[in-house]
Queue: 4 jobs
Job 1
Amino acid sequence: GAVVSQHPSRVICKSGTSVKIECRSLDFQATTMFWYRQFPKQSLMLMATSNEGSKATYEQGVEKDKFLINHASLTLSTLTVTSAHPEDSSFYICSASEQGASYNSPLHFGNGTRLTVT
Amino acid sequence: TQLLEQSPQFLSIQEGENLTVYCNSSSVFSSLQWYRQEPGEGPVLLVTVVTGGEVKKLKRLTFQFGDARKDSSLHITAAQPGDTGLYLCAAGNSGYSTLTFGKGTMLLVSP
């Protein structure tokens, strides 16, 4: 089955530093990847849609200069949290849809990254 | 933007009990997916339903798509501790690349 690898699984950083999270599709090509933020025991909040070779589309209220997304290849998207603050601490999850996927195709999720900003 | 209401938000039951989780909207969906997420992991797809009135079974889980394609339900028979997790419904529509997720139902099954 389609596998999405997200790295790192956990990261602790100091306030003011930047953190990069990688999302890789291991056995399929993903033209579109999605980045979510999730608070404890809550649902997924879509942050942005990342399309290979073009600029990401950010959801309302998500600062694009703070959450930098790069989707340089069909198998890799990265999310960089810049100048992190404690309120950015959260669980970040990526998902990918396969090339040619339709609206009812499954999303393949990474296992998430737990970010703690001290 | 479609709004998906999921109920209940939290459910704590004993092993062996039955339960139903609901996902409702005022809008019509082209498709409806159910995912389960365990703590510290990403969601995993359980089922996709696309036809109004469709019923799908996955072992002890029964999924139903409403006739009007505005609502869906997930019924678990004889729940087990391994069913514990966050259950998410997600709606898709033709022409849109993003899914709309419900707020989730947190299920805890105690031995």
Job 2
Amino acid sequence: KNEVEQSPQNLTAQEGEFITINCSYSVGISALHWLQQHPGGGIVSLFMLSSGKKKHGRLIATINIQEKHSSLHITASHPRDSAVYICAVYDNFGGADGLTFGKGTHLIIQP
Amino acid sequence: EAQVTQNPRYLITVTGKKLTVTCSQNMNHEYMSWYRQDPGLGLRQIYYSMNVEVTDKGDVPEGYKVSRKEKRNFPLILESPSPNQTSLYFCASSLSTGSNQPQHFGDGTRLSIL
């Protein structure tokens, strides 16, 4: 089963700072998901990527399949970006079929 | 509006009293899954279903049951809840199984078993 590690676990930054969250995994995959969990608990899918880079507004996600590593960047961070960001990979080994998640990065952006 | 709906959102109950958490999606998705989220452990898969009448265990299935009689519904059943099942539960669905499908999550159900 894939092991998914995220860093940092907690991150506090000032408004406007450039944010980077890292994710690494142990077994080769075909796609990786980045999710955002709001303070109220709901989970939203931000990106699904299998190579290169994707951009949506101020969010950028990159993946290096060979190095088994992905990063999520937030440019010009804002307090409304405060949330838990979760990296997940699809696992279908040993009878499983679903996402394996990292433990999340708790991001706080201070005004 | 495309959505995954879970009910109830919050429930406090006692050990041994059977409960069901409902999950319904309106996107005609084949794949549905239940996850639990615990501090320090993250999200873990409980059960999943690839289609009607097809269900299978995830990583932490003990103490749970599911059924998939209709495509849109995937209830999670706790026959005899225990305090270690106190957790935040999420239902999710996607068009089909596979890594290239985004998953849509419900808003979560916070269960407290006393």
Job 3
Amino acid sequence: EAGVAQSPRYKIIEKRQSVAFWCNPISGHATLYWYQQILGQGPKLLIQFQNNGVVDDSQLPKDRFSAERLKGVDSTLKIQPAKLEDSAVYLCASSRATGAGRILGKKLFFGSGTQLSVL
Amino acid sequence: GQQLNQSPQSMFIQEGEDVSMNCTSSSIFNTWLWYKQEPGEGPVLLIALYKAGELTSNGRLTAQFGITRKDSFLNISASIPSDVGIYFCAGYTQGGSEKLVFGKGMKLTVNP
């Protein structure tokens, strides 16, 4: 079974530029998450999708971050404009639908992440 | 927001030694997950715990869901060099909108 795919692996941009990350979840996983992991910290949830609807975006800085999951499969996360403090690893994760099989839905599987450096 | 206190923050051990780490919270959690993250990779799920008092093993790893539902621990027995990495605890808060919250991680170094 293929895992969560993310691209690019690395990105270096200057502040005020824009950047986009792409994620393809595990086949059949209805729930998709974007996490931000700052160096030395645990991952922090930015946004959670159930199919193509947003379940939780309470910690997403909406003035500069946006995310979409148009067809309920792939997702993109965009930052515009980027700030120095956005330097982090952006992790995508997926899980089975939380409604059907609560226990299975709680197991998140992560991609390798995109390491973003904002200069 | 919810916070998980993970300790210790780092450990340096010799190959073959056992290691323990724990995670505590001021809030009740209804699920605990333990992840391992290696450099340049995303976290990989090691063990999931769903009931207070539950003790679960995965090879040389053993984890327990604390009876108070506010803590969990992970033990690694007979460590080997490939155990090197950062170990994260994560938990789902009880009730309402469940959200997975992560600890800050414990960096493990194993000397051959």
Job 4
Amino acid sequence: DTAVSQTPKYLVTQMGNDKSIKCEQNLGHDTMYWYKQDSKKFLKIMFSYNNKELIINETVPNRFSPKSPDKAHLNLHINSLELGDSAVYFCASSLKNIQYFGAGTRLSVL
Amino acid sequence: AQTVTQSQPEMSVQEAETVTLSCTYDTSESNYYLFWYKQPPSRQMILVIRQEAYKQQNATENRFSVNFQKAAKSFSLKISDSQLGDTAMYFCAFVAREYGNKLVFGAGTILRVKS
């Protein structure tokens, strides 16, 4: 009965590959987010969707493409992975200004 | 631009004692929310406490309380009776509707509770 679940928890891949991270929330929230946490633990917004509509796109390279098939899901697809994409990616959903986070996906690009 | 500053990269406290983590922020908005999130080594982001800017009363959650000084744009977190399980990275964060409700985070403070 996890509220915000991300898969996979760990992802190790080679440079140049394409990969996806999936996120699902069962809280009935309308808004979902992707955040990136870099190696210095700094957290920054990447995207936000409200009811399947893109609300925030925070100057992220277009190799990153979010997709929201319905308001309970927000997936992140990354093309042509680069070494600098190595980070922890968090999905979150919100209701009334409180954001609930998934457990994070640690992406390692070799 | 909205910014959040945490000036203490690391802090330590003895078990059962009290510690205060500092946070300042900068915004021109009048309606916003402030949060403290905890990230233990498991990397899960856990909401500790939140404060609505329009409320003058400081929020409290069990051993956790805040000192919200709106004019000074300061939002410190006090942890009383520190426990070993409080060891974590603590992030101060800000959200305002006018900016799409995105969370803007500080750089974090590593708190170590010693036995």
